[in-house]
Structure formats: C-alpha cells, structure tokens
Amino acid sequence: MKEKIYFNHDGGVDDLVSLFLLLKMDTVELTGVSVIPADCYLEPAMFASRKIIDRFGTGGLDVAESNSRPKNPFPKDWRMHAFYVDALPILNESGTVNAPVAEQPAHLHLAETVLATEEKTTLLFTGPLTDLARALDAAPEIEEKIERLVWMGGTFREAGNVHEPEHDGTAEWNVFWDPEAAARVWDSNIKIDLVALESTNQVPLTLDVRERWAKDRKYMGVDFLGQCYAMVPPLVHFSTNSTYYLWDVLTTAFVGNPDLVKVQTINSIVHTDGPSQGRTVETAEGRPVNVVYDVNRDAFFDYMTELAKKA
Ligand code: AGV
Ligand code: CA
C-alpha cells in the first residue's frame, strides 16, 4: 500500500521542485498540500503549487493557505523566488488554474485531512513547523494518527545557516523562523526524522548538475528542473549566504527512497530565546530525533533526475 503523505511547504525553489517530485513517486500518495509564507510570498507560492499539481498531478488535490506568522522573517530576496517559478511558461501554457484553494487555513486543513485519512499519515514539512504546532494545539487527537514527521530543519554542527543581526549563527533557518513551534513539536510524542544541514550540505547546486539537466532537457520534467534551478545561485568557488543546496529535495527523496541516506538517533532540545534561538542541541535530557547525517550524493541526483524523466 502507498504511504500517505501530507506536505506543508514554504514555496522556495526546492519546496516547489519537491512538490513536483512527490507527484511523480509511485510509492507515495499525497493526501494534502499547504503553503506557509515563510521563505516565499503566499500568493505566487499558492499559484505555483496549484499549477504544478495541474501540470504534473492526476487531480483531486486542493491547496491550503497558511495564516501563520514569523518570529524571525526570511530575507525578501529569497522570498521572491516563488514569483519566478509561478511565471514559468511550462506552468502557464494551459492558461487556467484548476486545483482549488482549500476553505480552511493550513493548520486546520492538516488536522482535518489527517483525521479523514483511514491510515496513519506521514507529515512532510520543508518549511517552519508553525502549522503543525497550531494543529496539535487545535486538535490534539491528530497526534495518534501521525505515522511520523519528516522535517527539513536543524543542525548539530557548530555552524547553522542563519546570518542575521543579534544571532550567533548556530541555527538552521526553518527552526529560526519560529523556534517555539519546533519546541512545541519536540514536546509531542510524534516520531521525528530530521534532514539536517549535516546531509543537505553534501548536496549543493553545482554546475555539473545543471549541465546534466541541460543535456536531458528533451524530457519535459528535466527541463522543468533546469528552469527552476536557473533561478538560484550555485556553489562555484566557495559557499556564501545565498548559495543554494537541495535541502528540501533531499528531504523529499528520503521519503521516496530511504536507502539514499544514513540515519542516527540523537537526543535534543530546541533553543527558543536569545542569540542561539532556533539552535538544535544534543543533550541526554532531550527527546530522540532521527537525524539524516549522510547521503549518497550521486545516487540522490540520479534518483531525482529519473523521477523527473517520468513527467
Ligand atoms: O534552511 C534551508 C531552508 C530549506 O527549507 N530554506 C531553503 C530551503 O527551502 C531557507 C534557506 C536557507 N538558506 C537559503 C534559504 C538560501 N540561500 N536561499 C533561499 N532559502
Ligand atoms: Ca523550504
């Protein structure tokens, strides 16, 4: 039987590519999609999501809008990316947008979808955890219907990827945007699989990957990958604040093919205040999380490119 997946994302290039790849996996069934305006603006990210579902899906999915708010907002330049994906000709050829907008806000849509699904649901989150924290407060009974949470977030390395005033650089952005939400989920009994910077650092966007997608652009889905990853800066000489990694796509690929990675269980807490807010720290008193700390890089890029060829 196919694994039931509910996907909450925040409209970045790799979030939207993740949605596309999920629609191409025959081992999973998407039960719901929602969008949180964290690393995106909501309107273009909603349109892009609905158009990706129309173009690459088989129908039957609506998309819910989050009304969650940040503690620490994302930089505007990064949030603009959703406008570029939404404008791609490949998503606008039909001139129509069919996938409906859900009536409920994302956190209630999540709760309703999980309760309405007979089997337990795997939650896939590639942005902050705010909608899950709010869903748990609004409908605590969902907890026992959640198989596990797979989240792109956190790191146990010294260096995170937040480079902001008043912060010490130890956090990963999806935790930093709303540290309390992560702490709320840590407080639950949900099983957590964390795709942390340890593994995502091993899959930067590089020029050889772009060249590979360019060579195979005769496949519509591979052309779509190439167009999307033309919008963001690759790793060339050294990593900068804006260098792009395949953070969320690795997280999504882990759901479809867990053999790509290595996992280790770590007890951890989340810092919610001060200059280290959003930092995930290993400590014996913490709760267990399964950390994806290593990936077979070549097998990962092969896997996602082969999925794209099915489009
Ligand atoms: O921290 C990684 C998360 C992922 O969910 N996001 C991007 C991915 O969607 C935030 C982020 C960190 N560095 C970034 C980010 C960058 N250089 N550009 C855009 N987003
Ligand atoms: Ca994201």
From TrEMBL:
<feature type="domain" description="Inosine/uridine-preferring nucleoside hydrolase">
    <location>
        <begin position="5"/>
        <end position="302"/>
    </location>
</feature>
<dbReference type="InterPro" id="IPR036452">
    <property type="entry name" value="Ribo_hydro-like"/>
</dbReference>
<protein>
    <submittedName>
        <fullName>Nucleoside hydrolase</fullName>
    </submittedName>
</protein>
<keyword id="KW-0378">Hydrolase</keyword>
<dbReference type="GO" id="GO:0016787">
    <property type="term" value="F:hydrolase activity"/>
</dbReference>
<dbReference type="InterPro" id="IPR023186">
    <property type="entry name" value="IUNH"/>
</dbReference>
<dbReference type="InterPro" id="IPR001910">
    <property type="entry name" value="Inosine/uridine_hydrolase_dom"/>
</dbReference>
<dbReference type="Pfam" id="PF01156">
    <property type="entry name" value="IU_nuc_hydro"/>
</dbReference>
<keyword id="KW-0326">Glycosidase</keyword>
